[in-house]
């Protein structure tokens, strides 16, 4: 069913189940509107720093995460609100894509965007900039619950992104979301068919309750 999903529909379904804060803010955008992202979260929590310590490799945990990615997994980076961190670029995208990663999500910045777009690897980001994370931020924990763009993400949560934005489906809600999403997809297909046939919007809405 994943190939028929879209973020607005998932957001509506989650709203109906009482999960009303699962869509990331509008500033989190895809590098390429034509690609979609669907997979399981692998989380990384960043700490803002203001110096690079001599002899320390600030990328250790970042490397561990990327090297351990399994097919269908999505690294989710919680970078905070400083706007000083661009932890993702062409090299990490290449290493992740080779491992079958379904995409990457961060509330920090991304760089090397022309190269990533050519790869058609899905990256959803909070901005574009050249700033390396070294001396500005480092990962302090992997695979922990965190907030990315103000939305709680736990390891293994289902993450979906398209041109409209990113939605996180908590594991506890997955079964209910899948059931309701299937019903909503059927209803939207029937709604579109009747609208295209010229049936008034109000009539169609009163019949299906979908808008």
Describe this structure in words.
The protein has 211 residues and is α/β, with parallel strands linked by helices. It has one domain: Glucose Oxidase, domain 1, CATH 3.50.30.40. The chain is 31% helix and 23% strand. The protein has helices at 7-16, 60-67, 90-98, 113-119, 174-196, 201-208, and strands at residues 29-30, 37-48, 73-78, 104-106, 123-125, 137-142, 146-148, 151-153, 158-162, 165-169. Strands 1, 2, 3, 4, 5, 6, 9 and 10 form an eight-stranded mixed sheet that branches. A two-stranded antiparallel sheet has the order 7-8. The radius of gyration is 19 Å and the shape is elongated. Its cofactor is a divalent metal cation. This is Putative 4-hydroxy-4-methyl-2-oxoglutarate aldolase.
Layout of strands and helices, then pairs:
Layout: H1 7-16, E1 29-30, E2 37-48, H2 60-67, E3 73-78, H3 90-98, E4 104-106, H4 113-119, E5 123-125, E6 137-142, E7 146-148, E8 151-153, E9 158-162, E10 165-169, H5 174-196, H6 201-208
Parallel strand pairs: 2-3, 3-4, 4-5
Antiparallel strand pairs: 1-5, 2-6, 2-9, 7-8, 9-10
Helix pairs in contact: 1-5, 5-6
Shape: elongated
SS field, number of helical segments: 6
Give the class from helix and strand content and strand pairing. alpha/beta
Give unreliable regions as ranges. none
Would you tell me the overall average pLDDT?
A: 93
InterPro entries: RraA/RraA-like, RraA/RraA-like_sf
Pfam family, one: RraA-like
Cofactor: a divalent metal cation
Protein name: Putative 4-hydroxy-4-methyl-2-oxoglutarate aldolase
């Amino acid at each position: 069913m994943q190939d028929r999903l879209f973020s607005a529909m998932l957001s509506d379904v989650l709203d109906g189940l009482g999960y009303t804060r699962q869509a990331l803010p509008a500033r989190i955008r895809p590098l390429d509107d034509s690609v979609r992202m669907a997979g399981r979260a692998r989380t990384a929590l960043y700490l803002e720093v203001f110096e690079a310590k001599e002899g320390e490799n600030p990328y250790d945990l970042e490397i561990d995460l990327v090297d351990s990615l399994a097919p269908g997994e999505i690294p989710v980076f919680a970078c905070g609100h400083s706007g000083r961190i661009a932890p993702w670029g062409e090299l990490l995208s290449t290493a992740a894509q080779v491992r079958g990663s379904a995409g990457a999500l961060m509330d920090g910045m991304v760089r090397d965007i022309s190269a990533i777009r050519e790869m058609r690897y899905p990256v959803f980001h909070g901005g574009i900039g050249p700033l390396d994370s070294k001396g500005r931020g480092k990962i302090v924990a992997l695979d922990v619950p965190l907030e990315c763009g103000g939305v709680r993400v736990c390891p293994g949560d289902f993450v979906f992104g398209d041109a409209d934005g990113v939605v996180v489906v908590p594991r506890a809600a997955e079964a209910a979301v899948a059931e309701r999403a299937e019903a909503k997809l059927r209803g939207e297909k029937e709604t579109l068919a009747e609208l295209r046939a010229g049936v008034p919007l109000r009539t169609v809405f009163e019949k299906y309750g979908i808008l």
